[in-house]
Known about the structure:
By secondary structure, this protein is of the alpha+beta class. The chain has 3 domains: 2-106, no CATH class; 117-270, Alpha-Beta Plaits (2-Layer Sandwich), CATH 3.30.70; 286-375, predicted glycosyltransferase like domains (Thrombin, subunit H, Beta Barrel), CATH 2.40.10. 44% of the residues lie in helices and 23% in strands. The chain has helices at residues 2-5, 12-25, 31-40, 46-67, 73-84, 96-107, 117-134, 148-155, 157-174, 198-214, 246-263, 363-375, and strands at residues 138-145, 180-185, 188-194, 217-218, 227-228, 232-239, 268-270, 286-291, 296-304, 308-313, 322-327, 336-348, 351-360. A 6-stranded antiparallel barrel has the order 8-9-10-13-12-11. It starts with a helix and ends with a helix. The relative contact order is 0.08.
Amino acid sequence: MNEIFETPHMKVATVDEALMSLAEAHPGMEVYRNYFYLLTHLEFEESDAVRHWNEFKRYHAKFEKDLGYSIDTRISTLSYFINENRQLQNPKIIEMKVFQSTQDQVILDDLTALYNYRHFRERIKGEMQAAKNREEMLSLVIIDIDDFKHINDDYGHLAGDGILRQIAVLVKSGFTNHGEAFRYGGEEFAVIVPGVGKQEVYELSNKLCARIAAHPFVNENSPARHEMSVTASLGIAVYPHDCDTSDALIGNADKALYTAKGTGKNIVCLYSENQRRAKRPNITVPGELVSFRTERDQIRTLNVSKGGIRFFCEQELAEDSVVELKLGLAKGYDPVTVLSRIVNRSPDADGFVYGSVVVEINKRDRVRFNLFVDSLPDE
Length: 379
């Protein structure tokens, strides 16, 4: 884009094409309003700015015809507002590369160089309307770095900033040619993915989740540049399956993310499969744990969802190990057996608190388990 406007002679046709492309690529960005403000310091509503641009093009054509030679757009813009529209008191002309640079400052996040939250809000509305017009799917992926506060507390904010920059690169590259990446806020990122199937978005998200977990993050605040392990949780919502407005799409992706965080972190959750999971009521259920080392121990659930179980157990279990949880959901009935994978653990008094993802439940127990979760009150 910069190369187009860095020519010594700025032609109206070139500028017109560039502004239209910019407006199409960034719906809601008020391209024409910003163009005139940066060029002249005159402020207009976007609709008035578009009207002025169309009137200016007619004025420019007549101006060139009267003079008999081609005129730079900046000169004819000054002439238009001084002689024709007569609104310009203090002319200010800038190079288009400055215009582009200023636009970048408006829509880009300083730390990560991804699009910022302000631009995200504009884009999600525009993409939702486009998806409705084209009758296509629109997905939103929200990514949250797990336990980011501990990174800042343990290694310092400079190290945290370095992690954010490195995550941003992975997020952007993880959806290359599929969607646009944004810094959503704090340690959260978002990706808007138009026109891509739900399953493909889910697979891309899982690949990103795995890449983040496997990536050797560098502590930029350490002279030795020590490597650090970092994980992230991801939530996905899809239009039209899960919602019909941009605000609902954001809310549902956030609920799916909340589910992923509550289930044990370092996983991806789809909202459509997790409407009930997004509400994770605290519930205490007695049960027994059977590990594949044939050891048994008593457990106590802390919260239960269809996608995962958080529980306390005195036995120390390795992350990523698979265990059987036998849950006594109702007195007088056989326990429900749930095959779960440990994805997170933290020390607790006299034992450990584990986050686990449900791997498998046999058909008979699945019905009982789902009915039990559905019967839990919302908090």
